[in-house]
Amino acid sequence: MPADATPQGFAADPRERLPMPQAGAMSEAQAAAARALTEGPRKGVYGPFLPLLRSPELLERVGKVGEYLRFASVLDARVRELAICAVARHVGNQFEWQMHTPLAAKAGVAGATLEAVRLGARPQPLPADEEAALDFTRELLATHGVSDPTYATALAQFGEQGVVELTSLIGYFAMVSWLMNVARTPAQAGAQAKPLQAFPA
Predict the structure, then answer these.
(1) pTM of the entire predicted model
(2) pLDDT tens, N- to C-terminus, the chain (201 residues)
(3) Which among 93, 51, 52 has a CA at the least distance from the CA of 178?
(4) 20: how many CB neighbours lie within 10 A of its CB?
(5) What is the DSSP letter of 84?
């Protein structure tokens, strides 16, 4: 990690607290959970699923929620990925930022938008759906709710199901980011996205 990048969990000591357990040390439930992840759409055990292996049943349930929100939500992939990047920036999570920035770009989010988010700035101009999603995400993270105007704009863009799923997506990625911040789970080796830096003091 570059010296000016934000350590996972803002930790002075970057050493991982809950790394991948040794294969021989895993319980049957842990080994089964690891196999299911490897054989499923994620194709491996990484990110939040490393610490979650300590609770295999929770891992399975969290994984199912994440699969729906990432791969089956009514929200457009571009909107989902931008919201995920905004959450990662808010909580200083290198793993989710570096994983989802390229996915957001591939889904059609402009590079200038992602760079503004990385720096903590308000990207402008934005397509109406991205603006609605970003404003909703930032307001929810900052105030733990959203105002009537922000809600009305999101409702007009995404409908009731979309608003529920956007809210749940934000909460899900905040949760797994917090988990990795606590566990000090590093970004994946070889991640290409520019890392996050701490906000100016």
Answers:
(1) 0.92
(2) 555 566 777 777 778 999 998 888 999 999 999 998 888 877 889 999 999 999 999 999 999 999 999 999 999 999 999 999 999 999 999 999 999 999 999 999 999 999 999 999 999 999 999 999 999 999 999 999 999 999 999 999 999 999 999 999 999 999 999 999 999 998 887 787 888 888 765
(3) 93
(4) 15
(5) H
| Distance in angstroms (rounded) separating the CA atoms of residues 181 and 184 | 5
Measured distance CA(66)–CA(173) in Å, rounded: 9
Strand partners, 197: 5
3-state class (DSSP) for residue 151: helix
Our CA angle for 47, 196, 54, nearest 5°, is 20
Residue 168 and residue 179: Cα distance in Å, rounded?
Answer: 16
Q: Where are the alpha helices (DSSP H) in 40-76?
A: 49-52, 56-71
